[in-house]
Amino acid sequence: MEENPDPGEERQPCSVSVVLQGDGALQVEISDAVSERDKVKFTVHTKSCLPHFSQTEFSVVRQHEEFIWLHDAYTDNEDYAGIIIPPAPPKPDFEASREKLQRLGEGDSSVTREEFAKMKQELEGEYLAIFKKTVAMHEVFLQRLATHPTLRRDHNLYVFLEYGQDLSVRGKNKKELFGGFIRNIVKSADEALITGVSGLKEVDEFFEHERTFLLEYHTRIRDACLRADRVMRSHKCLAEDYIPISAALSSLGTQEVHQLKTSFLKLAELFERLRKLEGRVASDEDLKLSDMLHYYMRDAQAAKDLLYRRLRALVDYENANKALDKARMRNREVRAAETHQQLCCRRFEHLSDSAKHELMDFKARRGSAFRKNLIELAELELKHAKASTLLLRNTLIALKGEP
Amino acid sequence: MAAEREPPPLGDGKQADFEELEDGEDLFTSTVSTLESSPSSPEPASLPAEDLSTNSNGPKPAEIILDDDREDLFAEATEEVSLDSPEREPILSPEPSPAITPITPTTLMAPRIESKSMSAPVIFDRSRDEIEEEANGDVFDIEIGVSDPEKVGDGMNAYMAYRVTTKTSLSMFNKNEFSVKRRFSDFLGLHSKLATKYLHVGYIVPPAPEKSIVGMTKVKVGKEDSSSTEFVEKRRAALERYLQRTVKHPTLLQDPDLRQFLESSELPRAVNTQALSGAGILRMVNKAADAVNKMTIKMNESDAWFEEKQQQFENLDQQLRKLHASVEALVCHRKELSANTAAFAKSAAMLGNSEDHTALSRALSQLAEVEEKIDQLHQEQAFADFYVFSELLSDYIRLIAAVKGVFDHRMKCWQKWDDAQITLQKKREAEAKMMLANKPDKIQQAKNEIREKERVKDFKTVIIKYLESLVQTQQQLIKYWEAFLPEAKAIA
Fold first, then answer.
1. What is the fold of B302-405?
2. Which portions of the chain have biased composition (kind: Low complexity) (chain B) (predicted)?
3. First vs last Cα of chain B: how many Å apart?
């Protein structure tokens, strides 16, 4: 099934990571996307005057796995340890939607043709919405990379943007997956130790505060995410409920012979319109609230990872100190220990500075993103509520006016 | 009143009737001629009794005999009402209360006798006008409320007592405002009495809310959870609507049983409404017999009007059921939405608490508050959905069942009449009786139409109420979001 959102036309405005102060030196966007079977192909379009590139404007086609490869390249890179790496975009997931479409296709004898057409329309709309969302997520990821002063200079990014051929990033094979798995376990164990009672003296109050904050924040935002999702789904169910009601009312209307006929038909129309409105409310909530919460949950995780890396560096630093002391005591290999210690120290301090900067930036970014989205959410809800009121009032007048 | 309880053997009894008829035959030939043009065909609806009676010189005794005759026939017949929905049995009192001649039919009869020369349709109009007059009169000057459900007693003998408050300015009641305590079986008893009396006359008696053994047992056992309170609330609302519908009907309003129900402080216990009583078992046996009977009756539907109406009602019933199911789904999902919104509000509040950015934190708490209020809104809306819309629909579905019951009576009557006809084929009285049947048919139609008008009004008012509740919800939503907007803008 091929679906092409018209480039430039109904572009989903970047709902999540707002205010990107780019200096325009590197502009990236996803100009097109095609969905084939279970793969989505993104056309990444770059505009740049940087010397690294051979052209000023060019496009490549990338798939989701290649984005993940890029993300991993960043996270594995020690140089970027002190930076919050923009979270990787989630894998495009059309499973749920596809299942629903299939179920609908299998046919349900109790639904009339009109109802069927409406439900199909709803589901197709849903599919399209998911599609647009995944495009937006991938785009935001790239754009954050492109606007970050440090990250944008990465060689891998250039390769990603320019290399015409397939990056042949195979899906991770078993060993790598396993390795990744182990690494995660180790990381979380470490994390637990570090964030727990490890006797590690956190000298900097700022970081201490940040650590407690982030841990709590992450859990809570994850919670809020789940619940917002549920609200959104309930709203969708509600909207869908109006379909059979409207159908039943219109068939009642066609059957009735007298006064009630027009009333029924009007009611049927009312419910049909209400359904559309409710559906829009649900999708707006999804966009403005759910999506935002999801994104910042992932971002908070990235920030946590940063903190973790910093703590690791701190551990290394402490170990280096201890090694130095031991060396001094034994008066052996002092020089080596000293250099090592200095290295660790410098690394740690560099990391801390960068982390501080990043974390404050994260806070500001969060504030402005929430602000924008909450305002938009409120405005949209108002718009829909006003439309509903108008619709209901008109119907009431019509109903009351009849004998 | 010396009512003869046992039905006179068909042959003899009918003889007597037709002799009386002979006198009045002339009376009807004039009306018959005008009726011939009407499409309705012979139909022994249930009013011939009254027709015959008014012709004879001694109206009362003859009337009573015939009433009893019919009543006995119909006592069994009314069992059929609930065949479509086994759980909804109208529980009839074993003995119809002393025949209280329905007042309205006689007033209907009076103009007919007086103005012999008037053609039927005109009479018909007048009678309809009269009913309308009564309807527009001071019938609606009566308000009934059912409130304060209270649990009386303990254990399996416990029951819920409801307070029935009446406010009226009608003269037939002793006071202007009074209230009594009634229990559910009292309501059922009232319904069964009214049904016995009026169902065979062709009126559509509003059906009573159904028994629910599970629900009541929960209440009896004292399970104080939300489902039992909901159940009680549902029942209370249903009882209120039932009484309101009953008093709207001008004829039923005049009934002394209804008056007694509303006024007297002590009411004899309607024991026969108990599910497990002897009468209950008898009912079940009768029901089974009738079910078999129904399957074997093959009536030639020669009346196009009735056939059409029946078909219409079938369709209507189906549609309403479908609609009802969808509305129930709506209610369920709205409740879900409300619960989910509440959960989200809580987590948004927690998020706001842990948020570092102060302005954002404040905004998030505001959001949480807004969402909480919205959740309340949704809950209320769910209630409105349910009590206003959904229950209305189920009432209508039950009403249709009652209407079907009337149709079933017709069928039953027809069967009896058919049997009677076979034995009396030679008599030309049969022919006259057929002519006679035309008129009651018209009256039946009148009633149906009036019923529909009421239905239209009733339905409309409820729908309007429901839509208004929706409007209110939306307006509240607007208010909340408008209050939130500046907060969101204030995030530094």
1. Substrate Binding Domain Of Dnak; Chain:A; Domain 2 (1.20.1270)
2. 27-50
3. 90
